[in-house]
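User: Can you predict the 3D structure for this chain?
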Amino acid sequence: MEYTFKHLGHSDVSVLKALLAVFGEAFGETETYQGAVPSDAYLDALLRKPHFIALAALQGAQVVGGLAAYELEKFEQARSEVYIYDLAVRAGDRRKGVATGLIRALGRIAKERGAHVMFVQADLVDDPAIRLYESLGTREDVLHFDIPTGA
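Assistant: Here is the predicted structure, written as structure tokens:
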């Protein structure tokens, strides 16, 4: 099984929609990722934004995984960081190097952009994700807080 990794551009709205379905299935959150899929115009505009990075893992023409990331410009130094917001691989394609391939492909993009580092969060109970990320980088234990926008 050969996998390819595609950096999505504005003409790849259909691929991004297929990736949304993979995220929903992989995370067990179908309603979140399929219940209100944005319009093609919205997704096209998102894919055109320079700070949004989407990668799809393909087996032939089929989307089997992918990631969504954001380049964050820093203020304390003239540099950026890349935050991996979502990363998922279909169950049947896991443990075959797909997630590692996606992260390495993102690393090449981040390096081309001059990013200082990439970072990602993992739930404490997600042992496979934690093992993957520990194999690729340095672990930092932090707390994450969701703050309502009206606070």
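The first strand starts at residue 4 and ends at 7. Helices lie at 13-27, 30-34, 40-48, 98-112, 127-136.
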